[in-house]
Design a protein that fits this description.
about 475 residues; alpha/beta; 7-stranded mixed sheet; 5-stranded parallel sheet; 14 helices; binds flavin-adenine dinucleotide; binds 1,4-dihydronicotinamide adenine dinucleotide
């Protein structure tokens, strides 16, 4: 039987695309090589990492914050196996949710590795070697990404781990070496620091979180240092000797120079992710990739071959679940003849540490590089009533608005619940708001979101609480 659409990969891009296409009346099937649906995000990414971030944050609060509020619970004790079970239950609930949704929308699923044999033909090889060819009018590649490897360092997922291994460590390492001060390094570094590890983060560049607003990154680094994380910037790990009881990492200045040996129990390699197109047969059908191996698409997610589309981590843009989801919806709508679209200028980015870091739109560095004149409104949480009473005053809100039109171009937040608050900024930007629109919108009191309003007021220098 021929399908209208076959989606290869069931991460947030793939499964959302399949469901939207089914809603629009298409006959849809998905192909997934792994045992469970949900891709990186649900199985080994967003969901398990957030479960551990949440649980470890409460553990830290119980140990360090409850007493200050007059809550006596004694010294909390860590039961890591139960914490891991808590995480696994969360993953299980989520992947089962996707299976339910696919079924509810009458989407067929094929378990196995999908290969595009020709436009309109997907070959599925199951684990037992059985090969089946399925016909379809359209194909969406949603095969996601995989861990980037560091040359000469073999990940064994036991002592030298990627994020996947770092989510299942059986005991708290005494010393954790994190290679890469990106999102994974800082989120999972925070988890294991809270649970008792000494964490050293080695970063190639002279700053953490490349791509994030520098002001935010600097403040965030200070806060993480206060919590006990240590950083070695402008440095690279050039080898890890795993022959002894302790790992010995060779760390060199990024610009070259004398190496030093750093001991660790576990090394987390978190230097980015790469698009996953292995075995897809892109060359055979002529689907073009760029110099980073990403599938090339036009603004309507069409590849170089008619009837074949691509979305999510496997194409250019931030490797984020919600970006993949929105591309999935847009592509299903485009295939159905509708006007699907993703506004790539308004994609929020959140780091789920404590405090959280969240941003949407342009950073100051990007605006400067583009020669765009802007005004800045900044408001610290030390001046926000709710943050004061909660004693979560670390961080600030920064709003960047066009100097000529006052249109909001970027919003950056470091602070408790920043990830939730950034939605307000994203909606405002999607509607083309000015900073004055935010400043004159009534915000409930006492909430942390009043800091967003005050930062907007600060753009025109009339912040009341500062
Ligand atoms: P994926 O989720 O990678 O899914 C691709 C699917 O395709 C996989 O299931 C794979 O098995 C399957 N597949 C691949 N090739 C084939 C084939 N040939 N045949 C059949 N199936 C195939 N993003 C956020 O927005 N928020 C977060 O908090 C967040 N946390 C993260 C934490 C970690 C530790 C990691 C690693 C990532 C995190 N991400 C987060 C990123 C997020 O997981 C990805 O951006 C997202 O999963 C991309 O979705 P996708 O659908 O493009 O691909
Ligand atoms: P990343 O791209 O965020 O950070 C990698 C870091 O490693 C960079 O700072 C880079 O300069 C550094 N680096 C690269 N090579 C190095 C080397 N040889 N030595 C030392 N440092 C080196 O990648 P990360 O953290 O692996 O995350 C991968 C992707 O997963 C990200 O693109 C992110 O979007 C996504 N993700 C998103 C999350 C979220 O939204 N909260 C959480 C976790 C991951």
């Amino acid at each position: 039987m021929a399908y209208d659409l076959i989606v290869i990969g069931t991460g947030p891009g793939g499964y959302v695309c399949a469901i939207r296409a089914a809603q629009l009346g298409m006959k849809v099937a998905v192909v997934e090589k792994d045992k469970t649906f949900g891709g990186t995000c649900l199985n080994i990414g967003c969901i398990p990492s957030k479960a551990l971030l949440y649980a470890s944050e409460l553990y830290e609060e119980a140990g360090h914050k409850f007493g200050r509020m007059g809550i006596r619970v004694g010294e909390p004790a860590l039961d890591l196996a139960t914490m891991m079970k808590f995480k696994d239950e969360g993953v299980d609930g989520n992947v089962k949710g996707v299976a339910f949704l696919l079924k509810k929308n009458k989407i067929d699923s094929f378990q196995g590795v999908g290969r595009i044999a020709a436009p309109g033909k997907v070959e599925v090889t199951s684990a037992d070697g059985k090969v089946e060819t399925v016909e379809t009018k359209n194909i969406v590649i949603a095969t996601g990404s995989d861990v980037a490897q560091l040359k000469g360092i073999a990940i064994d997922e036991t002592r030298i781990v990627s994020s996947t291994g770092a989510l299942v460590l059986p005991k708290v390492p005494e010393k954790l070496l994190v290679v890469g001060a990106g999102v994974i390094g800082l989120e999972l570094g925070s988890v294991w620091r809270r649970l008792g590890a000494q964490v050293l983060v080695v970063e190639f560049l002279d700053r953490i979180l490349p791509g994030m607003d520098l002001d935010v990154a600097k403040q965030f680094q200070r806060l993480l240092q206060k919590q006990g994380l240590t950083f070695k910037l402008s440095s690279k790990v050039t080898g890890v000797d795993a022959s002894g009881a302790k790992l010995k990492a060779r760390v060199e200045p990024a610009a070259g120079g004398a190496a030093e040996a750093i001991e660790a129990d576990v090394a987390l390699i978190a230097i980015g992710r790469v698009p996953y197109t292995q075995g897809l047969g892109l060359d055979t059908v002529g689907v073009k990739t760029d110099n980073k191996g990403r599938v090339m698409v036009d603004s309507r997610f069409a590849t170089s071959v008619a009837g074949i589309y691509a979305i999510g981590d496997v194409i250019a843009g931030p490797m984020l679940a919600h970006k993949a989801e929105d591309e999935g919806v847009a592509t299903a709508e485009i295939i159905a003849g509708r006007a699907g679209h993703v506004n790539h200028d308004v994609i929020p980015n959140v780091i789920y540490t404590f405090p959280e870091v969240a941003s949407v739109g342009k950073s100051e560095e990007e605006l400067k590089a583009a020669g765009i004149a802007y005004n800045t409104g900044r408001f610290p949480f030390t001046a926000n009533g709710r943050a004061k009473v909660n004693q979560t005053t670390d961080g600030f809100v920064k709003i960047l608005a066009d100097a000529n039109t006052d249109r909001v171009l970027g919003v950056h937040i470091v602070g408790a619940d920043a990830g939730t608050m950034i939605a307000e900024a994203a909606i405002a930007m999607e509607f083309g708001a000015s900073s004055e629109d935010i400043a004159r919108t009534c915000h409930a009191h006492p909430t942390l979101t009043e800091a967003v309003k005050e930062a907007a007021m600060a753009v025109e220098k009339w912040s009341i609480s500062m």
